[in-house]
Amino acid sequence: MTNRAPGEGEASRFGISVAKARACAGASATARPARMNLSIDDFARGVLAADRAVLGRAISLIESTLPADEAIAQQVLERLLPSTGHSLRIGLTGTPGAGKSTFIDSLGTMLTERGHRIAVLAIDPTSRVSGGSILGDRTRMSRLSNNPHAFVRPSPSGGTLGGIARKTREAMLVCEAAGFDIVLIETVGVGQSETAIADMSDVVVALSIPGAGDELQGIKRGLLELVDVLVVNKAEGDNAAKARTAAAEYTAALRVMRGEGDRSRVAVLTCSALTGDGVWQVFEEVRSRYASLRASGSLEPRRRNQDRHWLRSLLHERLDRLLLDLPGARSAFTDAEAAVLEGRTPPVVAVERVINALRTDLRGESRGY
Amino acid sequence: MTNRAPGEGEASRFGISVAKARACAGASATARPARMNLSIDDFARGVLAADRAVLGRAISLIESTLPADEAIAQQVLERLLPSTGHSLRIGLTGTPGAGKSTFIDSLGTMLTERGHRIAVLAIDPTSRVSGGSILGDRTRMSRLSNNPHAFVRPSPSGGTLGGIARKTREAMLVCEAAGFDIVLIETVGVGQSETAIADMSDVVVALSIPGAGDELQGIKRGLLELVDVLVVNKAEGDNAAKARTAAAEYTAALRVMRGEGDRSRVAVLTCSALTGDGVWQVFEEVRSRYASLRASGSLEPRRRNQDRHWLRSLLHERLDRLLLDLPGARSAFTDAEAAVLEGRTPPVVAVERVINALRTDLRGESRGY
User: Which of A179, A369, B306, B330 has its CA 20 to 30 A from that of B285?
Assistant: First the structure.
């Protein structure tokens, strides 16, 4: 397997490089002793060669919280960066029961049959190290899980939503370096997880189902801000008419809430992930939006903005951690928060006290305290 | 005028303390030489005595960007803090042309006729020091501007949205200390200004108008997340039927987008700010939601969360400024951002370089560099 430089390969019908994908389609897992340590070189070369075993270990390395692993992970990422960015990044959200697993299994299979390589990742803020994740049941993607042109990975577990999202984002980059030309990141509609998905996707798809009886399942207000394609699933058999009605009501509601005008119009579709009916049309809509982003020159600026926002979030997180690691600053912050919340101190004054404590701590460091 | 302690005074029909307001209703501007400098004591006492001239100067002090003024402003705020919090904080947004000025003039007059004291502030991110603010035309609130029980102040000008929002928020606290029991903060629906309003209000009202012909004026997606009461204005004469139709369509759309269930239901009303028809009903809805927040014990936690969020934003802003003030850190950040956006360096690595530069700069400070 050669390391093909970014941008080579014929353009596909979808504007996605299929050539690199096809070239790597035959890569098999290289037999290795399970406990052999890999060097940074080994990781980088193995991922770029689309070696599935190395790919899995690289993502495990990224998920590891051991400081030594974190350092190696960042160096591996640095090596892989030039080979990233060449995928269509799809975010997928929906409440439990909307049929995400079945949908991904159906669409993913169709995509691989057309020569694509799809990686499926997840952000699940409810996941716990000892099992019990809403999205953990990858067995429900039975076909895709056994498909050599697909790579399915459960959510990283534990920690904050921010930490999980970062690891999934880094895993996405590794998958791109391994030649996957479509990366799908799924989440449940919990808390800010949908914002996290939107921050790393090119197109956001929300899966919905008609409610029982005459009730419509509502769309969380925050999601409306983020979604590009709204899909009403389970449009099969007796449910088909109900699904079409739900789609019509969503369309009318969206027109009212957004006003007329094509820009940032939300597409509303129906499908049956069970039968496959309408599933490909969902991808056509996603692909069409991605193609528009590229044609209008908007894709790169959009991704750069996402990266800029990611950098600043990481910086603020790191500064917060710095504050908490330094005893004087940490104690000043706790006092400051209490003073503000109890209405004793104006926030601007409180912040200045924290900054002064931070400066004092750091100056003390130079004198070996 | 005595400084009445928080919480005293009979509870009004609206759960808002009217007693303090009535007690101060007669306060008149104390004649002073225009250029006399006020001490912190003078500022604090004057505001608490509801002296309008001192109130205006206190807010000008808050808006000043001179470091000496900033220091005094914070000390004045610290003195006034115990007397704040005793108002109903209403956020009002709407596109230009929706009739906000007429609405505020109408509602504000009705409120003062019922014994309330209302302060009207503004967040206008388009305001410039040398005139030209969308919200600057306070002459359109002709009745309220001459009403002794009302205080109308234009938006602070210049700077970032965050800076403007902070000054308006601090001005709100000063108005509360001066005994105003209703504070209305208005903004145009530009950028993140609606989020800024929601972050400091108890109830958010959005003013809308039916579009020309059959088009409905859409609601910005982000606003839907924040609004409590949606009001379709200009329901007078020939427009009345159109306004009612628009209100019905918004109601149906909101039900679809949110699903059934009373919680965080958006109220949709019509009114004519010109004739006054329906305006009081808007306030009744606002008051009712405020009363529910208080009765359920949610108001204080909501405000504490707003303050907590404000504190953290200020802290991050201050840390950003610290980074930019220190030459090594500033240059490391510029390099880091470029490296990330050009895909050369993973963000986590880039952030670490910035942190190291910050530490180096601060340690250098202790050695007198």
Answer: B306
